[in-house]
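In the design runs reported in the main text, the only information available to the sequence generator was the tokenized backbone. The following block is the verbatim input for one such run; it is reproduced so that readers can re-run the procedure and compare outputs position by position.
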């Protein structure tokens, strides 16, 4: 008998008890514009867990678009010299190998690209052109493989990708950004892990996780398979109203990541993607959370609070400032005099 399958339609959500039957029309309207997918692992985590439901179950709030929101909130298109490549910073590029995901987060900043009318996967010719672009620019030190989610590709396709990158001498770092170890941990097989390694390169994996309840025993085991293969991991988290915008939740998440040998890397302020305003706190609220976190947990647990400036201007740290002219603030918010020279 086949096991549980990914939920992809409003009828699936209702049938699984994740949405009331009376919400079908609302959900159909959202699904017509933005992709829906909830893996069995996440479907199991949603009942009686509002923070998890908010991340993955569609709502009509997504159809409300604020004037400042935009289809390409961080300006990928302006820095895309060939299809599938984003070259915003001199020494690194994004390689968007595919445009599908295991789950579709309701706050996704690339939701217009991965939705029902989104970008098609790279053709063989487009992938050739992307590789030629990378090979032709010796300043590119790091390739960040993203999407979509690259870990939904088969081990064979991933092996082909890493083998091609291995042939480019000036590329030293290959980094994969993924949600898969948390949301579909069974996909992280030894064959897939082996496929992430590019001979002569250093591979890193960046895990996107937003709530400690995503880090189930199965997710922990999937991450261990990656780490035990000698591949270091960092994490990325999006600050989400109603999901993790409480110091205790962020503390639990960051502690759990470090316990799993994953270094917290970025806490992203949500991007101005269409229909995501209900997820956004103010930057001041995010800074207050970071101040609280600084006083609660080890430095190993501290991510950088980051804003990807709209329009393609790049990432900027927006964490609280602790030092001014002649004074410094401690983790408890108290100011202390300090010599200016």
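Verbatim output:
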């Amino acid at each position: 008998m086949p096991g549980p399958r990914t939920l992809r339609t409003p009828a699936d959500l209702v049938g699984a008890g994740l949405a009331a039957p009376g919400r079908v029309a609302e959900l159909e309207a959202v699904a017509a514009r933005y992709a829906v997918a909830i893996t069995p692992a996440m479907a199991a985590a949603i009942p009686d867990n509002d923070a998890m439901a908010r991340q993955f179950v569609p709502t009509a709030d997504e159809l409300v678009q604020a004037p400042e929101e935009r289809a390409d909130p961080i300006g990928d298109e302006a820095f895309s010299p060939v299809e599938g490549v984003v070259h915003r910073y001199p020494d690194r590029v994004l390689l968007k190998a595919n445009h599908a995901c295991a789950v579709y987060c309701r706050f996704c900043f690339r939701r217009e690209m991965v939705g029902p009318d989104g970008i098609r996967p790279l053709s063989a010719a487009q992938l050739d052109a992307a590789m030629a672009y990378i090979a032709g620019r010796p300043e590119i030190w790091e390739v960040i493989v993203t999407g979509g989610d690259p870990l939904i590709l088969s081990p064979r396709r991933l092996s082909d990708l890493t083998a091609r990158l291995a042939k480019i001498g000036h590329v030293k770092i290959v980094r994969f950004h993924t949600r898969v170890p948390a949301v579909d941990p069974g996909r992280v097989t030894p064959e897939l892990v082996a496929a992430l390694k590019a001979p002569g390169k250093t591979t890193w994996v960046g895990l996107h996780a937003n709530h400690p309840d995503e880090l189930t025993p199965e997710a922990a085991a999937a991450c261990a398979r990656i780490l035990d293969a000698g591949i270091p991991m960092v994490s990325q988290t999006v600050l989400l109203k109603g999901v993790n915008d409480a110091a205790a939740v962020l503390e639990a998440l960051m502690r759990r990541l470090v316990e799993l040998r994953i270094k917290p890397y970025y806490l992203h302020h949500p991007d101005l993607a269409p229909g995501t305003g209900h997820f956004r706190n103010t930057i001041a609220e995010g800074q207050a959370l970071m101040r609280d976190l600084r006083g609660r947990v080890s430095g190993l647990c501290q991510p950088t609070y980051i804003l990807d400036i709209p329009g393609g201007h790049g990432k900027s740290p927006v964490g609280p400032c602790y030092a001014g002219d002649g004074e410094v603030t401690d983790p408890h918010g108290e100011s202390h005099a300090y010599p200016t020279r």
